[in-house]
Amino acid sequence: MLKALGKIPLWLKTLVAFAAGVAVALAWGEAALPVLKPIGDTFVRAIKMLVAPLVFFTIAASVARLAHGEDATGGGRAVRLGIYTVVWFMVTSVIAVSIGLAIGWYFQPGSGLTGLPLAQVTPKVIPPAVEVITGIVPSNIFKSFAEGQVLSIVFFAVLIGAAIGALGNKTKELGVLVEQGSQVMFRLTRWIIQLTPIGVFGLIGSVVASYGLDALRPLLPYIGLVYLGCFVLLLVVYPLLLKVHGLRVSGFYKSIFTAQQTAFFTCSSIGTLPVSLEAAIDKLKLQKGYAGFALPLGANMKMDACGAIYPAISAIFIANYFGIVLTQQHYVIIALASVLGSLATAGVPGVATVMLTVTLSAAGLPLEGIALLAAIDRILDMMRTATNVTSQLLCATLVSRENGLIEAESPLLTPTKP
Length: 418
Fold this sequence. Notes:
The chain has helices spanning 2-7, 10-28, 33-68, 74-107, 129-134, 141-147, 150-167, 172-193, 196-211, 220-244, 249-266, 269-283, 288-301, 305-321, 328-344, 351-363, 369-373, 377-402. The protein has 418 residues and is an all-alpha fold.
């Protein structure tokens, strides 16, 4: 029996678990929450448990190898790769916010809608950009590990890796230890990934049991538009970028499917990071040193859905609901706030709400509109996060292609005929 279950693909087991979670939630409603919620929460906690040590060991080992010259990328090229990565972050964000604005302008969500309840929303404190940047340097690295401050962990890991490489033979054993730590964390990640169907059963069941289907009906058109924007990115824009770079679209999406599933159900780019790294290195066959740097960075700074699609469509929805006519200047401000704000709010918890707050404030739109969308945020966040994670993996893939960092056996590359 167990052997037969082991032969079933993980994606199929996850879909069955998804259907089972929905069925249980619809059958028992809120009465199922005491069972479903702990299952989902435990799975999310198990994934988040991996993030800090995985990021630290992966990046420290990668930088140490670079310093020793094993990856033949060199310090100057490492800086160039970082610049390439941020440029692609910006380019795809501009495309994403343009799509969001176009969809919002064409369909005009929120027009004619009245009487929506205002949920209780705790205002987000938005730190200044300078504070966010200086906060990357940790005053207490143990606190950063405890609180999961990934950018601070990345910064510290880079320094440790550089020091190990600079000391050469003096720290040879420590370099081996860090490399072994990286391998251990990848093995733990593979084990946790196998629990995905159980986690999905609890997570999706909790969502359906909490909200039901009737509560979503007035906002279904708006939800549909946010999902439409994400699908345009996933099914049109990203495949075009892959094709332009001579990469196989099917190879990319098959390799990252587990990461997309995990992102969809956990609603956390940071929480999905262990699975994203496994997909990039083991399946897409991206160079380990670069992937170990780009994906943790992207999990904090690269948010095509949370930082572009969502605030663009939501700003138009809120303006229409409150009867505010948007001018051309409004659209320009929304676009700029969405693209630049995603970088300025890197690492801030609740980034989708923060991004919407930034966008509404910049455009002079009522912040009370955020409370209209609070009840359905989890529904939106599933698709937003899956799109975010896909965009993070896409940018790492494109930069890898442009710099020769994809292994020959990668499914991204068309096999050469003998």
